[in-house]
Amino acid sequence: xxxxxxxxxxxxxxxxxxxxxxxxxxxxxxxxxxxxxxxxxxxxxxxxxxxxxxxxxxxxxxxxxxxxxxxxx
Length: 73
Hints:
elongated, mainly alpha, 0% strand, 73 residues
């Protein structure tokens, strides 16, 4: 069951997001999304982070340039 759910997860998340776009099915989509969250489906968190207004710490920082020491004379 876990492997089947893992394979179906992206499609299920897509369905939930589509259901939430329409007023008639918004509550069913939300309930399905919450159920997927309770099952700890990682794709749900990926989609939610895209819609979240808060910045995430996923940006990679550039390494700091090292200062060169002056040669001893």
